[in-house]
Design a protein that fits this description.
Number of strands: 0
Structural class: mainly alpha
Number of helices: 24
Length: about 550
């Protein structure tokens, strides 16, 4: 859920700022690719759980078997073609055993989706032509018409010519229009297919507005986010705005990885755009990922598309290596020549330098070194003074806290021994339950806050100076520091490791990272400078 919100926030932020931060976004994608095995493992665990449940289902319970096959099909449909196809066939067989025409039509649609996703266009049309949706529920009719629309759209994109593609687009538009008459207005499918129809009909501005509105919905799943951003990128590519398209495709690719979606065009299209921009290194990496996905899923049309651009990228890589090699050799020759010239000049200069200039240089160097040493000593003394002040305050505080804790423990021990001696078990339980560890910890943190603010009187003001007015921290009554301030108070005390901060505040490391990132993103200073500005706050 958190990852979906972060991805959606990143995409919406792009529309608000209209800036493309390629390096940051590509870094996020590279990290997601490195973690893809983790997401795939989660997918396999989910599949194994469903298989175990299916194994326990009675063979005579056909409705339960149908639902079990359907659940496994849904897991596989964008993950692996062979398995999805197998479960779609099992759905068909079970529907026939049940003698249920609605279920049979439903199973046939799932089979058609598999075939289309794998790029088997003839088989897709043969399968869909066997379906009759007359009298079927509106939901099945809508799914059938949208699948037929997608079939003609994909076929037109695959042919990509001026003769067949327009005709395929018209047929796809007709089917999609029929589907939209049946989808509930306001549903994801209605909004998405309306945008797709507008794109194929040449109404790209309407599609752009619709997709932006769709992205603002908080209920999008990761897969819906991937599909929407990937489709929206086509509009920006058509409008000659590759940077905007790249941001959207990165978002789509990350969402695909996090949902273990292997039947995807997002990372392939991203590789094409980066290749055209000259980013051959990332383009090569992503095209390899696209090849892996296409082979793993069994998407035939993706393999064809990838094979068309892969030689271009590899050829460009070789050309760039050769070009860099030539440049390196040229500059090596120039550098060698210049080095020889410098050596000759240096020998000449050194021969002409008199003893006085040598002495002056030595004195100057010594003076500079002395100044540097003095400055380092001043800095060190300042840090030592500050460290001593912090040490004295906190040593005193912790000795006092330890003394009070030992007194409470001693009192608790005496009371417990007395009650054990008289076998007052209920009193013992009441005594144990009266110990409020949460309150003790809150008091410990509160005392930490008091001592910290005694040392750094203007910490809260200096901290708030790093934020715009609307994001400045307002503390509650009787509150010294809140969690945001306390995290950076610990950093100011020299505790920089997230693990230690998380342990002290009893949060997870991920939560601490989230807090820090959120706070830095609100600041008026660059993220990489934020902690340095915190460390510059001095004791009073």
């Amino acid at each position: 859920m958190l990852s979906r919100i972060l991805l959606l926030t990143s995409t919406l932020s792009f529309f608000l700022t209209a800036r493309c931060q390629d390096n940051t976004e590509l870094t996020r994608l590279n990290q997601a690719i490195e973690a893809s095995a983790k997401y795939d493992s989660a997918k396999y665990r989910s599949i194994q759980h469903l298989r175990t449940a299916l194994t326990a289902t009675e063979k005579s319970d056909l409705p339960a078997l149908f639902n079990g096959y359907l659940s496994l099909y849904e897991e596989y449909k964008v993950f692996n073609y062979d398995s999805a196809f197998a479960y779609a066939r099992l759905l068909q067989a079970t529907a026939l055993q049940l003698g249920d025409p609605v279920r049979a039509t439903y199973a046939r649609l799932k089979l058609g989706f598999c075939l289309l996703s794998s790029g088997m266009f003839k088989e897709t049309l043969d399968s869909l032509n066997e379906i009759s949706v007359r009298g079927a529920p509106d939901s099945l009719q809508a799914e059938y018409y949208s699948l037929m629309g997608r079939y003609y759209y994909d076929l037109g994109d695959f042919d990509n010519d001026n003769y067949n593609t327009p005709d395929y687009s018209r047929k796809g538009n007709a089917y999609m229009d029929s589907a939209l008459q049946l989808y509930p207005p306001g549903s994801f499918n209605y909004s998405y297919y309306t945008g797709l129809l507008n794109i194929k009909s040449g109404k790209r501005m309407q599609a752009l507005t619709g997709f932006k509105k769709l992205l603002s919905r908080p209920d999008l799943t990761l897969h819906q986010l991937a599909v929407t951003t990937s489709t929206l990128s086509d509009i920006y590519i058509f409008n000659g705005q590759p940077d905007s398209a790249i941001v959207l495709l990165i978002t789509a690719a990350i969402a695909d990885i996090q949902t273990s979606t292997k039947e995807t065009a997002a990372i392939f299209n991203l590789a094409q755009l980066l290749y055209k921009k000259g980013d051959v290194r990332n383009a090569s990496s992503y095209i390899e990922t696209a090849i892996h996905n296409a082979v793993f899923y069994g998407a035939r049309q993706r393999k064809v598309q990838v094979s068309a651009i892969l030689p271009l990228i590899e050829g460009e890589k070789v050309s760039r290596v050769e070009e860099q090699k030539t440049i390196f050799v040229t500059w090596s020759i120039i550098a060698t020549f210049l080095l020889l010239v410098v050596i000759v000049l240096a020998i000449t200069v050194f021969r002409q330098v008199n003893r006085l200039k040598v002495a002056q240089r030595i004195i100057t160097e010594a003076h500079i070194k002395e100044q540097a040493i003095n400055q380092r000593l001043l800095d060190t003394n300042s840090k030592l003074s500050e460290a001593n002040k912090i040490k004295e305050e906190y040593i005193g505080y912790f000795f006092n806290a330890d003394s009070e804790s030992f007194a409470r423990i001693e009192k608790f021990k005496r009371s417990l021994e007395q009650k054990i001696a008289y076998r007052k078990w209920d009193d013992i339980i009441a005594l144990v339950n009266s110990t409020n560890l949460k309150k003790e910890r809150e008091e410990l943190l509160r005392n930490f806050d008091k001592v910290f603010l005694k040392l750094f009187l203007d910490f809260i003001q200096r901290f708030n100076d790093l934020f715009p007015e609307e994001d400045k921290i307002q503390l509650k009554e009787q509150e010294f520091l809140n969690t945001d301030l306390r995290i950076f108070a610990l950093i100011r005390m020299g505790i920089h490791e997230n693990e230690k901060i998380a342990s002290i505040l009893e949060y997870s490391v991920n939560t601490i990272n989230t807090y820090k990132t959120r706070i830095k993103n609100k600041s008026t200073v660059p993220n990489e400078e934020f902690e340095q500005r915190i460390m510059e706050i001095k004791t009073v």
